[in-house]
Write a structure and sequence with these properties.
The complex is a heterodimer of chains A (about 280) and B (about 450).
Chain A: H1 3-27, H2 30-60, H3 71-93, H4 99-115, H5 133-161, H6 178-210, H7 219-240, H8 245-269
Chain B: H1 7-15, H2 18-37, H3 44-51, H4 53-61, H5 71-99, H6 108-112, E1 118-122, H7 126-141, E2 144-149, E3 152-159, H8 166-187, E4 189-196, E5 200-206, E6 212-228, E7 234-245, E8 248-256, E9 261-263, E10 266-275, E11 280-287, E12 293-299, E13 303-305, E14 311-319, E15 323-324, E16 327-328, E17 332-339, E18 345-350, E19 364-371, E20 375-383, H9 387-406, E21 410-418, E22 424-432, H10 436-455
Antiparallel strand pairs in B: 1-22, 2-3, 3-21, 4-5, 4-20, 5-6, 6-7, 7-8, 9-10, 10-20, 11-12, 11-19, 13-14, 14-17, 15-16, 17-18, 21-22
Classes of the chains: A mainly alpha (about 280), B alpha+beta (about 450).
The structure holds protoporphyrin IX containing FE (HEM).
Chain lengths: ~280, ~450
């Protein structure tokens, strides 16, 4: 077994999990969601193995380094963080309903890494600027943050597509109730916010040790700050202004758009220090 | 509040609003986008080429060429700070008594009416189990207050009252960060300098203005080394530096990217490198009429007389990258040829292309045979006395967020009510200032735990 086999398998298995979750939603079969969950856990195991193998392979190539340093690796890791967080949430809150919105995100991220010809999966050695222990802390925390926001986004979408009064036999009746979704969205935003905060901070400390400036208004930095502002707004609206439900779900969706722009848009449309993803 | 508030009071009320906070945060988020789309710190010509003359005037008026330091952006940050301070003062004075009460009081009704209340019934009468319930509760939540209300025994305990301060820690950290940034901007600098191998400097040049800044010591570059991977990508840049203070060598060390030198509040970072101007080169001169060739070492700036007294050649200088009709010919020396009866001409002598000067078809052909290649190291030199405030702010922000999000003020009431038919009805209720869903789950867990404990009585 090697990393590329493990990661291709993970991609395929995540795709299968998505099919089960969608099937469960469309046919109102609880059992399918349970199978979907088990498949997703299997996919996560392959995903973990793939990242681990990649790490080992870099040592075998003679320049050992953490596997979080380019677009391909970050997409694979993003799938992993989303999968782990989702598995945790499903176990803790005993809610399967929103797997139908999250499993496609997990699948899409890793599938995009494998299928976009513009994204190379070769393992290259690190340029000097990336050789730092802060790299691992920075990337891991940022992507845990992104995963929290991705799940919050899934919850918010669910809130918006779910009709106010879902009748017993509509397919939407399988989705959790509004209040639970609202609470879960908040929990996911809180998780994401804490880790984005730590991610921005570790990035700043790293920049200070590499370039002597903890903040230089580089587009990626600025966009992560914009994202941070949006979620800070989310939290103040909820805690101090009593916002709930649809309006707040919209704020969370705007926040996730900012996350996506920070992640992809900045790399493809703007230029800066973070050309590696 | 009276209708005729004084003006200071009105200002206070204006700033004491979370709506204002939200508006300011929205404005900051939206305006920050501008600086990621519009070129920052470019030259006027760049702006005119990119956006046209009219737009350039607009950009100038609103300082969009350096918008994160523009007056209006800083003004927004200032408003944010005032807002934060005013809100915090107001709020803290309101909840101070809640956080540090003279005496803890509780209202049993508020607990007993809550929908998350759990109930357990046991066969013992209240007096038999009161003590074990009290011990249990104190282990769950801390010191217990025991009261008797008619024939119901009430046990009350709470924990985490102080966590209500978490929000203030977060907000204080924002202020500390901005204060640190201000201190850095006022008393620090960011500069850069190039030092040739073997050379030393005492002055560095400010990043924006290029003004020289004198250091209290000299930095000498003993050696620069660059290593490449097999792929050709750089692996490591390393400079060996010596700090010379008061004429004495006080420290010699290597710096690499990500491994700077910090000396007396000044940080020295590896940032770039290049080929330094060499002192001399080995030059060969071929006389194309006689076929004679002479080879000599020539200092840069030195003039040599050409064979047969035909004229002279001056070795003028050196460029690490010579752009010739769109091609980069890399390291190139320059010289001036003066032949009797001909106008002076300037010629380029690329080291990598020894036949280059032949194409000129002059009487003499000049070729650089060899030169001693030296690097210069490009250093970033910074001073930022505010960085410790910023780091303290970082730590406070993480701690404050943790407290605010994952800890809460929880209070619990256990009511032991004797039942008419004998035995006790135990009510377990809890309140919190944060998620009531969490409290519901916690109470359910505690109920099971309590039941197990009471089985042992
Ligand atoms: C970006 C800078 C921020 C500003 C200007 C700001 C401003 C404010 C203001 C003015 C209030 C109302 C004042 C009060 O009642 O205490 C408030 C409340 C609050 N803020 Fe912030 N805030 C900021 C960042 C944050 C962050 C990063 C968090 C995340 C932990 C946060 C969490 C809260 C919470 C939880 C409350 C509610 C307070 C309560 O429940 O008593 N704030 N904020």
């Amino acid at each position: 077994m090697n990393s590329s086999f493990a990661l291709s398998s993970a991609t395929f298995i995540y795709g299968l999990a998505t099919v089960f979750y969608i099937g469960s939603f469309a046919f109102k079969q609880k059992k399918l969601a349970t199978i979907g969950f088990l498949v997703l856990v299997t996919g996560m195991v392959f995903n973990t193995a793939g990242i681990g193998f990649r790490w080992i392979e870099s040592y075998q190539m003679g320049f050992g380094r953490a596997p979080f340093t380019n677009m391909y690796e970050s997409l694979v890791f993003f799938s992993w963080t989303m999968a782990v967080l989702y598995i945790f949430v499903e176990l803790k809150y005993k809610e399967q309903g929103f797997g139908v919105l999250v499993s496609p995100l997990i699948f899409l991220s890793i599938a995009y890494a494998s299928f976009d010809p513009g994204i190379s999966s070769t393992i290259n050695p690190l340029i000097p600027a990336l050789k730092s222990n802060w790299l691992i802390a920075h990337v891991v925390t940022c992507f845990l943050g992104y995963a929290g926001f991705a799940l919050a986004f899934g919850c918010s979408l669910m809130y918006l597509i779910k009709p106010g009064q879902a009748s017993k036999d509509s397919i939407f009746s399988r989705l959790p109730d509004g209040e639970v979704i609202d609470e879960l969205t908040y929990q996911m935003v809180v998780f994401g916010f804490l880790f984005l905060t730590i991610g921005i901070i570790t990035g700043a400390v790293w920049a200070n040790s590499a370039w002597g400036k903890y903040w230089s208004w580089d587009p990626k930095e600025t966009w992560s700050l914009i994202t941070w502002f949006v979620y800070a707004i989310f939290m103040h609206l909820r805690m101090m202004r009593g916002w709930h439900g649809k309006n707040l779900a919209l704020v969370s969706i705007v926040g996730f758009m900012a996350v996506m722009f920070t992640y992809f848009g900045v790399n493809f449309l703007l230029s800066g220090l973070h050309s590696y993803g | 509040m009276k209708n005729q508030d004084t003006i200071p009071r009105q200002i206070w009320v204006f700033f004491c609003s979370v709506k204002l906070t939200v508006y300011i945060l929205v404005l900051l988020a939206v305006t920050s986008i501008i600086g990621t789309v519009v070129l920052q710190n470019g030259s006027p010509q760049q702006y005119i080429d990119l956006y046209g003359k009219g737009m350039y005037n607009l950009i100038k008026v609103f300082h969009i060429d350096d918008m994160y330091h523009a007056w209006w952006f800083l003004f927004l940050l200032l408003l944010l700070c005032i807002n934060l301070v005013v809100c915090s003062v107001e709020r803290l004075s309101l909840i101070w008594k809640t956080i540090f009460p003279k005496q803890v009081r509780f209202h049993p009704d508020r607990f007993l009416k809550s929908t998350t209340k759990q109930t357990v019934t046991v066969e013992h009468n209240p007096d038999q189990i009161a003590d074990s319930c009290e011990t249990w509760l104190s282990r769950q939540a801390g010191p217990v207050i025991r009261q008797k209300d008619q024939n119901t025994t009430l046990l009350y305990a709470e924990k985490g009252r102080w966590t209500r301060l978490g929000v203030f820690v977060v907000h204080a950290s924002v202020l500390l960060l901005l204060a640190g940034a201000l201190v850095g901007a006022m008393f620090g600098f960011k500069a850069s300098v190039r030092i040739d191998e073997g050379g030393q400097i005492r002055q560095v040049f400010a990043a924006k203005t290029r003004e020289p800044i004198s250091l209290d010591f000299a930095i000498k570059c003993n050696e620069f080394e660059v290593k490449f991977y097999n792929t050709g990508a750089p692996e490591e840049f390393r400079s060996n530096l010596t700090i010379i203070e008061n004429g004495q060598e006080s420290l010699t060390t290597d710096i690499r990217v990500n491994h700077p030198l910090r000396y007396k509040g000044i940080n020295i970072f590896q940032s770039s490198y290049g080929t330094a101007t060499p002192d001399a080169a080995v030059l060969s001169i071929v006389d194309n009429q006689t076929g004679d060739e002479i080879t000599r070492t020539l200092q840069v700036g030195e003039t040599i007389t050409l064979p047969d007294d035909q004229g002279s050649f001056l070795l003028q200088g050196f460029l690490p990258h010579f752009d010739f009709r769109g091609h980069n010919l890399e390291e190139t020396f320059f010289g001036k040829v003066s032949l009797a009866g001909e106008p002076e001409i300037q010629i380029g002598l690329p080291v990598k292309f020894p036949t280059f000067d032949k194409m000129r078809k002059g009487r003499f052909t000049f070729v650089i045979k060899d030169f001693e290649k030296r690097y210069y190291t490009g250093l970033q030199v910074t001073k930022d006395p505010g960085v410790w405030y910023v780091y303290a702010g970082f730590i406070m922000m993480i701690l404050g967020c943790w407290i605010t999000f994952f800890m809460s003020h929880q209070s619990y009431l256990v009511a032991l009510q004797p039942m008419d038919e004998g035995g006790t009805c135990i009510h377990l209720a809890g309140r919190t200032n944060r998620s009531s869903q969490d409290m519901k789950r916690r109470l359910a867990r505690m109920k099971t735990h309590l039941e197990n404990q009471l089985k042992k009585v």
